[in-house]
Each structure stands twice: as structure tokens, then as C-alpha cells.
Amino acid sequence: MRTWISEYVVAVLVFAVLDALWLGAVAHRLYDDQLGHLLAESPNMVAAVVFYAIFLAGLVFFVIHPSVAAGSWRRAAATGGFFGLVTYATWDLTNLAVLEGFPVTIVPIDLAWGTVVAATTSVATYAGVRWLPVTGRGRRPPAPPAR
Questions:
Q1: pLDDT < 70 regions, the chain
Q2: What does the pLDDT read at residue 30?
């Protein structure tokens, strides 16, 4: 259980830094320009926190924990990237399908960001938790049992 919690905490920290940089320094103007007519005056922070909590729980459950257990940063990168693509596509493509005026130009940018941020968070978390004392400090986690 401590390993799961460690993975979640590290993932939250990594993702928070990356997404803050993205939203604050890179994409803020893009989103204002392209989505300004759809954006609320101020974000619903409860909904944002709930989304991030669920997204990161899914990333840890489906990507990070299995990658740490398998001892594979490559698995973390590949499955993390795919998880990010799928989850961000859910939001972008649903909006494109049902919201009038949702700009198609945002979709590839957002899908690329979702892929990159999830893959990067997964690999950084994988690397970080392998060196935490609670997870074995540099020790390779045991491999899952063979089927």
C-alpha cells in the first residue's frame, strides 16, 4: 500500500509542475484565443481537482504501478503516452462532436500535450519511486508471477 501511495504522491507532484508550466507559460494564450468564447470567467476548482485526482489515479493504476512492478521505464513511457492520448482524446473529441464552435485546431495540440505529459509523468514517477526508501531505494521491485 505504501508503494501505491508513494507512486500517487510523486505522480501528483510531477504532473502538477508540468501542467502548471504548460497552462501558465505555454498554452494560456492559445486557450484564451481559441477557447475564450467557451471558457468560464474563472475555473471550477473543485471539478479541476476531482479531474486531476481521478486522472492521476488511473495513470498510477493502469500505467505507473505495473511499469514499476515490471521494472520497465520503457513500458511507463509507452503506456503512459497511450493513456494520455486516450484520456485527452476523450475530452477533445467529445467537445468537437457536441460543442458548437469548438476549434478543431486545439485538438491535435491537446492530444500531443496529453501524450507527452502522461508519458513524462509516468517515466519521472517510475524513476522517482525506484529511489524512495519506502519502495526499496534502488532495488528492483519483484517481477509479477509468471502465468
A1: 134-147
A2: 87
